[in-house]
Amino acid sequence: MVGWAIAVHGGAGVDPNLPTDRQEQAKLLLTRCLNLGISALRSSASAIDVVELVVRELETDPIFNSGRGSALTEKGTVEMEASIMDGPGRKCGAVSGLTTVKNPVSLARLVMDKSPHSYLAFSGAENFAKQMGVERMENDYFITEDNVGMLKQAKEANSILFDYRIPSTGYESCGVGVESPITMNGLPISVYAPETVGCVVVDSQGRCAAATSTGGLMNKKVGRIGDSPLIGAGTYACDVCGVSCTGEGEAIIRGTVAREVAAVMEYKGLGLQAAVDFVIKERLDDGKAGVIAVSEKGEVAYGFNCVGMFRGCATEDGFMEVGIWE
Amino acid sequence: MGWAIALHGGAGDIPADLPPERRQPREAALHRILQIGVSALNAKSSPLDVVELVVRELENCPHFNAGKGSVLTSNGTVEMEACIMDGNSKRCGAVSGVSTVVNPISLARQVMEKTPHIYLAFDGAEAFAREQGLETIDKSYFITTENIERLKQAKEANRVQQDYTQPIKPKDEKETPVPDGDSKLGTVGCVAVDSLGNLAAATSTGGLVNKMAGRIGDTPIIGAGTYANKFCAISATGRGEAIIRETVARDVAAVMEYKGLGLKEAADYIVHQVSPKGTTGLVAVSSKGEVAMPFNTTGMFRASATEDGFMEIAIWPSET
């Protein structure tokens, strides 16, 4: 028997100028989700059930970039993706290109438990959702005013960057609403909306699980798939740990980040925090990302190499922390 | 150190009594396509160009499960996926749900080189193909009579299996045994290293016979079916769901890097000690010019060559 541990995240790469009320809202949501997970763990729920439960809550709330509140494609639509993995046995499920499913992480779980496959996408995934009778909504349920505004800014930022007639010194005063020069994935951080959500849990039986969910990149090309639904990149769980990542999807894919944390634990014998630190430092190259992880021993750890990561973690012995900055 | 190349046309339950009319065209194709890769390497093409070239040839050949000759979804349609990765930069490109693009591997390469993304799928991938002016064709081009037959048999086996009160001895409860034995033909792929140690990997497939529409397998998932870094390049084939779970391609490289194993040892370890029997095969080359082609299935269509003149084309386990 091991003490349980849980960590949640709402995205790595935070605008340092994020208004305080937004910061408070985010922290309240993280706290609420953490407490939801903690109650479930106290009632002996299994890790896989807890990660799904917590991510559902994060998807339903419009604050972060998943489910309702997802970032928009270049066409102004929502295409959601998610994955879930159960450490013992390493069963996994993933979905991409969802447009009507209220809780993508739950559909990913159904792919894992009720289909002969591990990953379903686009209309095939939507058909499966209909067959399974999961709750579905019109695409505009997922679209928030905030995101419509950010999409507009992202398009403006793109067009200005490529319009050689505007001198580069004019960029700072072009009125796009860009307050900080930090960029991620080529977009100013204030419009980037990297707030993928995720949860990792180790239950009192030492079983680890992980789940990640997102609307993806703001202004992404229709059909673009990021790291969140890719097992080994954005999500991974095995006997020794559970990992969920967030940040620049392409860097996370290239670095197979989630699997990497487990691999250095398994093959190099590193402990959880050391593994997280190693991967963040050595495996992201120029990319910006963050990771949350738990180990079969009841440890919890996180790391990020960008300005801030919305996160929360708690362990059975009473430790609890919610934060954004270093 | 000289160059090395290895390519595969799928691992699976290839019966030892495969009739000559099914065996010879494939062996001949492996031979011809290997020569194409070898010539390109001798002409100093980059490994990235070589793996793309070789996989295009495999896609165009109707005898393998990629491009023309792809297996069919449960709807009788073709949904292709492909992935390419450059070892030095770890840049990669992947596509899924492609239905009209003649060479999915080239589309994957365009995603890598012409977009800020890594992975495009379904309508988005098809639209991008048209933007880039890639060759597209009517969907019926990809469908072969062999595959229509395979789908029919798979559906019948499903129906038969559900009529029994006892399951037909399945390898795992999700597998559908099919009479002619080669319905699980995987994927095609190629890995190459040049004399400077530059590595690249490419994989392409039509997926699983009778798969659900929208099903994505291991091929386009970096670290599962395809991977390359500065240590090695890997292309895997077999049961996609197992390869994803085992992060096969990444693990071979990880075991080399973190445990100091050589290529053959690392590849053998992952395929024979870690992956469930009957699910996995792979081709691999290392930055030192080594080649490995282990598989834990009955057979794997494969071919390899090294600059010093070594060459192998085979289907079942070698005698050695």
Protein topology:
The complex is a heterodimer of chains A (326) and B (320).
Chain A: E1 5-12, H1 20-42, H2 47-60, E2 80-86, E3 91-98, H3 104-114, E4 119-121, H4 122-132, H5 145-162, E5 183-184, E6 187-188, H6 189-192, E7 197-202, E8 208-214, E9 224-225, E10 235-237, E11 241-247, H7 249-254, H8 257-268, H9 272-282, E12 289-295, E13 300-304, E14 309-315, E15 320-323
Parallel strand pairs in A: 3-4
Antiparallel strand pairs in A: 1-7, 1-14, 2-3, 2-8, 5-6, 7-8, 10-11, 11-12, 12-13, 14-15
Helix pairs in contact in A: 1-2, 2-3, 8-9
Chain B: E1 4-12, H1 20-42, H2 47-60, E2 80-86, E3 92-98, H3 104-114, E4 119-121, H4 122-131, H5 145-163, E5 188-193, E6 199-205, E7 226-228, E8 232-238, H6 240-245, H7 248-259, H8 263-274, E9 280-286, E10 291-292, E11 299-306, E12 311-314
Parallel strand pairs in B: 3-4
Antiparallel strand pairs in B: 1-5, 1-11, 2-3, 2-6, 5-6, 7-8, 8-9, 9-10, 11-12
Helix pairs in contact in B: 1-2, 2-3, 7-8
